[in-house]
Amino acid sequence: MLEPSPVLSVAATLAVFAAARALHRKTRFFLLNPVLLSVAVLIAVLSLTRVPYESYMKGGQVFSFFLAPAVVALGLPLYRQLRRLSRASLPILASTAAGSLVGVLSAVLPAGLLGASPALLASLAPKSVTTPIAIGVSEVLGGLPPLTAAVVIGTGILGAVLGPPFLRAIGVRSPTAFGLAMGAAAHGIGTARALEEGEEAGAASGLALGVNGALTALAAPWLLKLALSLLGLS
Amino acid sequence: MIPGLAILFCFLAVGEAASGLARLPVPGSVLGMLLLAASLRLGLLPAESVQAAADALLDNLSLLFVPAGVGLMLYFGLPARDWWALLAALVPGTFLVLAAVGWLEQLLERPAARKG
Questions:
Q1: ipTM of the complex, rounded to two decimals
Q2: Whole-number Å distance between alpha carbons of A223 and A233
Q3: CB–CB of B64 and A73 under 8 A?
């Protein structure tokens, strides 16, 4: 088994991401999303060189560490958009609450119909919320937190890549609606994508990430119970 | 940029302490975000003080998710049955949330915009 130095992991991550972003900026092709592309290339490299994920993460965790202060930094666009957003606080709260409800039920019901175990269902329930909240929810519900972390990342990449063309196709034009949808469906990765559309969408997305996370954390135990009884599992 | 980073980490520390002490269901980073927006609104610190640091982090937010995303490789070996359940949970659900939130917000904000 190979043990690369943490420095090499950091260098590889930076180089692959820089190349992926340059390619995306040049082609503007949505499937060449920088996160999706970088993750795919790095997984391929690690698999081919037989480097285990844990060894890669000795360097990779440097990036993950800065996720928490980056979420705090979302307070700046939020502040700049505060006046506009607070005028429409009721619609924002209502649509984000709907997102939280749909998020949990639309994850648990189809998986339950396909025969997923209760532990798998509990791991899937918080798929649309930001990782630290999702892990906490998964633990409380009896899920598998590492699986939840992977599911959350998968959802985020899916939403960041396909969300913008989908929202445009279904006629969502308002930047606030666009941002809220991206933040509620695809948490931080969706917010990173929403920021590229402008500060209005980015601030709304960061707000949705927080509100959706809090509401889901509070409601998930009841929503999971509701879903299990609908499925006839409890 | 360094003073700004220090400020962001201070808000994160306060957010984490508050989240832990009050046993809130929200992580410290989200509380820190709300506290930062509130402090800027109340004029406790100028927006310029965190501008450079916040821009540096937010302009590269996607990069910060890459190593966590590479963790997906740990689950490639899941049994096929679990994979179908995972895909059924992730794919339609993500589009449903996008549509529900996007449409509802757009529907509700129109009358408000007309009034104002």
A1: 0.92
A2: 14
A3: no
Contacts of residue A7, Cβ cutoff 8 Å, sequence gap at least 6: A59
Instruction: List CB contacts (< 8 A) between A80 and chain B.
Output: 47
CB neighbours (10 Å) of residue B32?
28
Query: Which of A35, A66, A71, A233 is the best mutation test for B, with the most CBs of B within 10 A?
Result: A71
Measured in residues, chain A has a length of 234
Structure tokens at A142: 């009896």
* pLDDT score recorded for residue A12: 97
Reported pTM: 0.90
Mark A124-155 as b/e (b = at least 16 C-beta within 10 Å): bbbbbbbbbbbbbbbebbebeeebbbbbbbbb
Cβ separation B37–A82 shorter than 8 A: yes
- Summarised one tens digit per residue, pLDDT across range A113-157 is 998 999 999 999 999 999 988 988 998 899 998 899 999 999 999
